[in-house]
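Slide 14.
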Amino acid sequence: MNLVHFLNKPVSSCCQIKSIPALNIIYKKPFFYAVMFLIFLFILLQMWPFLTGIKVDDTSYYTTAHGILDNINIYDETEFYALAAKLFGQSIVVWPYTYPPLFAQILLPLCLLQYQTFTAIWMIFNIIAGFACIFLTFKLILREKQNNYLLLSLIVLFCLESQPFKLNILYGQAHFIVYLLIILSLLFFRKQEFWLSSLFLSLATFIKIFPVIFMLYFLLKKDFKYIKNFILSSLAILFLSIVAFGSKMWIDYIFYFSDIFLKSKRTLFSLHFNTYQNNKSLRAFLFNLIEPGAPGSSKLGLIYLIFIALFLVLSILAILRRKDDIIYAFSILGLVAVVLSPMSWRHHYVMVVLPFFYLLFQYLREKRYIPVLILCFLVALIFYYPNWAGFPFSYMILFALIGLLAMLLFEPRVKNVQA
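Slide 15: predicted structure.
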């Protein structure tokens, strides 16, 4: 019997399991909880040596939070680096803060602690959030009354040991929080708690702006009530932020956003990271392929715009075929956001989890093992391919991501999953 078939069979119909009663334990929730506890301890022990060390990204959050207290323009690189040097010394590597102000404002109470305490708490929180990402996605996707918890445990380990998950923890990134808010939004949408759903999606957008792409689904579905809830939730969040901290940071952010994305003003940071080899975006790949000596040229911009239009048109056509399947739509749009973003780092690829689970369990239910193998191969590349292998091989995870997106876009046999 096929191993995947064996692992995915329910207890009642699996003669092998019936003949070996002790193996029934893999269908028991206590077994799953025990394995999860052991995996959590394993991940915690792996991360323990890095618990209080300097992280690459949470230093940015820490500096930004103190910038709120010092009333500086955190979107001015000169002022930002000067504050970072004051907090950490001249030798520290810190990236400029490029997100909306809300996340730094939320973290402000935690950032009032000493950095060593802050970074330890933030790392442990990120480990817990990583587990929550997986569990809540299982809750969203799985419908069977009886699951094979050995298979689910292996999937958890496969995801948590991957480079995107580890980098989120080791860098002190915030992408787990964004992913969790997106999944919570989907869970509340399924329960028809549309206000809460729109609120969580608004929070995700205020932390990292890319979740706004999910509003395309509601536009295509003509769900204007949800769009109104999203706008009102966003206005309420913005109002509370301004009342608590003033409007200066938001004005600075608007000018920063305008200079970078509307006026094409290139700072040293944006020039470096738009072309950096660790930037796994489509735009960075096109730059390194076409014009490695001329960043921001009109030729590169035109080709990039053509790809944006192509991906968006294909996504819209696919979503229109299954407008009632919000998980399918969010799976597609989440991948499109990663592909088309001007800066897509390895930790952004945690967005793969939702489409991975969506397709995997659908294929297993349909006993379609060739697509399962292709899917697992693509996700294994995304999760475990070495970071550095030289151009163009360093973009293998981008190619794999586009392959996964193609499986979603051109998969006619995936059945609708009603929200």
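Speaker note: The longest helix spans residues 115-141.
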